[in-house]
Amino acid sequence: MPADCVVFDLSIDHPRAHVWSIVGDLPRYSRFFRGITSCDQVSARDFGKPARYLLRACLAPGAVFDHHLETPIARKDEQLVISGSPDNGSWVSIRLENDRPGRTNLKVVFFRPMLRHPAATDWTESEIKTWVRDGVNRISDHLSGISDPRPVLKRRDIGSSPIRVARTLAAAGILTPSRPDKMLRQLKAVARWGATMVGGYTAAAGREPDGVAVINDGADTRTFRDMDERSTLLAHALRGLNVKPESKVGILARNHAILLEALIACGKLGADAVLLNTGLAAAQVEDTVRHHKTRVLIVDDDFAEKVRYVPEKVVRIWTGATAPRLDDLLADQPHTAFAAPKRPGRMIVLTSGTTGTPKGARRPTPKGLGDAATVLSRIPLRVGERVLVAAPVFHSWGLTAVQIGMPLRATLVLQRRFDAESALRAIEEHRCTAMFVVPIMLQRMLNLPVEVRERYDTSSLRIVASSGSAIPGSVVTGFMDTFGDILYNFYGSTEVSAGTIADPSDLRAAPTTAGRPPLGTALGILGVDGEQVPPGAVGRIFVGNDMLFDGYTDGMAREIKHSLMDTGDRGYFDADGRLFVAGRDDEMIVSGGENVFPRPVEEVLAALPQVDEVAVVGVSDDEYGQRLAAYVVLRPGARLDAGLVRSYVHQRLARFSVPRDVIFVDELPRNPTGKVLKRLLADEQQLVQGLGT
Q1: How far is residue 230's CA from residue 224's CA, in Å, rounded to a whole number?
Q2: Which CATH number fits the domain that encloses residue 654?
């Protein structure tokens, strides 16, 4: 039976001040109490007015609701009273009393509790007590420094069972043998070439030769047979240029079919493909080509200036009209099939370079279709999808879209340049069912005028998969409110592949979450000792799966603990097991003795209606050691001043999170994948400070 008033006591073996540090900090409640996904401070206590919060709770999939709260009583180390909105009269009181030295008694009173079950019935007294005790136990473990009990370090979740992989692939339609003869040809191709791009496209050509594999900029198309045959011709042409197994072939190209054909051709030869970032400067292209001992460079014509410093001995093959043209090289080549090389060719992807010079990362060869099942276990793509690959293929996320598309025999819609309206037009024209993007592309689509967005029918779209950087919570909710609950957020990297995936239900419940580990992936939040941190604590994010990279091409590697690899990020789990990324290791600053991450400040400022984009960086400070500086891009016609920005942050975050420097800029520096180049902002601010002194 529901109860209007629930009163009970419980004790915790910690001093009152330690207990208050969490009980009195409502924004941290999601880390300890199940069902609470966020509790954001809306305004601070001021002139006798209570602090106000917006609590979001999710007690079951789809059962998400917001609740406005106030704290009319917040006596440090003594009592906290949390009240609901005035019209319902609900409140909860938590009084802290000394039990014995080092032990605190909590006197808890719930009056008209408003947290509800999905069926809209009030919690019973027993359920309320169980829920509170569960959260307090987690708080106790946190204060005691007891490692999180999740079994992530025992490798039981690393590597997927064949049954779970088979079920996932069957659900995607990959293992449905509609035609035994075609299925046999498909399986032979995979057995011969493995789960590589060669195996994928050869298998697709055997099973569905006339199926459309690629649509280029809305016009030119390639079938799976075309992709197989043209890549064979290109492989012969490359062999004629002395490309051998383990030779390096550089590719500097935008998204189009020739890029994919080059990757397949390298695979048929056993050569390594070096995917060059189109945003590199000419000197960086030269350095990368020299470092990797690249023998041949396949390059788009409009990047002629970027390859002007490349040594003459490196053969250039142009994808357009410049001689020697790639299509001309294919004209006189034999159609003879290749035998599978002893060692499959590797793909070398350059890191984003947001915090320094881009490095080559050797991606491992997939060991089977289990790697596709990893993504498919959380993103329900199916055979026959029409996928708009808006993310650059030279980036690991765009490459993932291609690799996932292979076993699905998906039609890939490619555009050389991203334009928000052109993307919507392509979705309507080709009835795209899925789209792979980086977060800034979501922002650009939302920034289109409503009348432009409504001009295009995007009802065919059922999956939008984003990765590459954090998505602001305001963009998550704005995108889903506009296009429907079709957004998936993939957290990973070139080095660790898949870490977590947030599906639409996760993002509705907690818009800033990175989600949960997919099939075959283990996740650990580790401390400086390499062991799992206590519940709710921030630590280093480590990932384990079968697709961890094989190291950088300069011989460096990432730290491994418990068979898990360091991501370079810090984060924490909430009480329901969702991952939240606090920020990069190298972004955290220490200001006045407090550890501060820029991302919470960015989330707060991104919610301002006047703000289009924002980036926060750490800079040196003579008094506090370091401080935050915020770079803000305003929406057209909007007005905002630095004082209002600082006041807005101060109302919602701790004092040390308030940016002392607020700089309004026309745009943020970004790389071609949309990541903000924060090192440029930090360097600029340090220069300004130096000139000021």
Answers
A1: 10
A2: 3.30.300.30
Q: How far apart are CA 272 and CA 246, in angstroms?
A: 6
In whole angstroms, what is the distance from residue 491 CA to residue 435 CA? 16
Residues 542 and 672 in one domain: no
pLDDT tens for 128-164 read 899 999 999 999 999 999 988 765 554 444 455 778 8
Do residues 56 and 38 make contact, with C-beta atoms less than 8 angstroms apart? yes
- For residue 48 the two structure tokens come to 């006798």
Cβ neighbours around 61 below 10 Å, total: 13
- Note whether 564 and 596 are same-domain residues: no
Q: Is 179 exposed, middle or buried (0-12, 13-18, 19+ CB in 10 A)?
A: exposed
Give the closest residue to 363 by CA, choosing from 341, 345, 342, 346. 346
User: Which among 404, 481, 392 is positioned nearest to 671, based on CA atoms?
Assistant: 392
- For residues 290 and 611, give the distance between their C-alpha atoms in angstroms, rounded to a whole number: 43
- Quick one: tokens of 636? 């057209």
User: In the block, which residue shows the tokens 């109860």?
Assistant: 3
Q: How far apart are CA 490 and CA 440, in angstroms?
A: 14
**Dihedral angle of Cα 354, 355, 359, 361, to the nearest 10 degrees:** -70
Question: Which of 348, 354, 590 minimizes the C-alpha distance to 470?
Answer: 354
* 304 part of a folded domain: yes
How many residues does this entry show for the chain?
A: 693
Backbone angles phi, psi at 399, to 5 degrees: -65, -40
Three-state DSSP string of 376-419 = HCCCCCCCCCEEEECCCCCCHHHHHHHHHHCCCCCEEEECCCCC
DSSP state string for 77-97? TTEEEEE--TTT--EEEEEEE
Query: For the whole model, what pTM was predicted?
Result: 0.92
Classify 601 as helix, strand or coil: helix
Question: Which of 222, 220, 221, 225 shows the shortest CA–CA distance to 203?
Answer: 225
Question: How many whole angstroms separate alpha carbon 208 and alpha carbon 202?
Answer: 10
CA-nearest of 654, 649, 651 to 632 is: 649
In whole angstroms, give the CA distance from residue 687 to residue 667.
Answer: 19
pLDDT at 593: 83
Domain that includes residue 70, residue range: 5-144
Residue 134 shares a structural domain with residue 234 = no
Report the mean per-residue pLDDT for the chain.
Answer: 89
Q: Tokens 């898990």 identify what position?
A: 564
The values of phi and psi at residue 429, to 5°, are -65, -40
Q: Is 309 left (phi over 0), alpha (psi -120 to 50) or beta?
A: alpha
Helices then strands, each counted (H, E), the chain: 19, 31
| 3-state class (DSSP) for residue 448 | coil
Pull the structure tokens for residue 292. 């990797």
Closest CA to 478 of 501, 515, 453: 453
Total domains present in the chain: 4
> Which ranges of 122-196 does DSSP label H, i.e. alpha helix?
125-144, 162-171, 180-193
Tell me how far apart the alpha carbons of residues 597 and 587 are, in angstroms, rounded to a whole number. 7
- Is the predicted pLDDT of residue 194 greater than 90, yes or no? no
Which domain CATH number covers 112? 3.30.530.20
Per mean pLDDT, which range of 82-86, 201-205, 569-573 is the poorest?
82-86
Question: What is the chain's alpha carbon radius of gyration, rounded to the nearest angstrom?
Answer: 27
Residue 577: left (phi > 0), alpha (psi -120 to 50), or beta?
left
